[in-house]
Write the structure tokens for this entry.
Amino acid sequence: MRVLVIGANGATGRLVVDRLKDHEVHEPVAMVRDSEQQPRFSGMGVASVVADLERPLDEALEGVDAVIFAAGSGGSTGPEQTLAVDRDGAVRSVVAAEAGTVSRYIMLSSMGADPESTGHPISHYLRAKGWADRHLARSELSWTIVRPGRLTDDPPTGRVNLAARIEGSGSVSRADLAEVLVAVLDHPGTPKRTLDLLEGSHTVDEALERI
């Protein structure tokens, strides 16, 4: 499949592109916001497209078979930008995917994502992610929502806990998250599923088989 990685220049998105390139099964296409970010990907032999989540995305999704949404407004932005990117931008990409050639859509969300979240320090973020997840789940796409716990920049452990619901909290490395996002693309047990993700004791393949 030709896989568009939205948020390809972000900390997680870069790792997702790297994994897709390394696995040599699918063709990654990096979606970036600024043309100055394109040389990193052209140097890898990866195609790229410049597009903005706050504007129409139909052209960016032309000829794309699958989407991995790995974009985020970042922790330093306020609620307004969070809504613009994590909610509205994600919804905009789902609408464009449904109107185009996309059949498979992988959404990077967050544990605790809930459109009605209140009383949490990052409730605005959890609400934004929850709204985007709800919109995707109501679409006609073959979707999978992956909801990791706190993300770290630690080296990959290769061991995860992946389940429809995980009680409590925890963390997972971005590297292991990227591996999961790529792995669920082809796994027959993941479409129409929402999966929590933390560091655990199973390999990614084992974790996928357990669900």
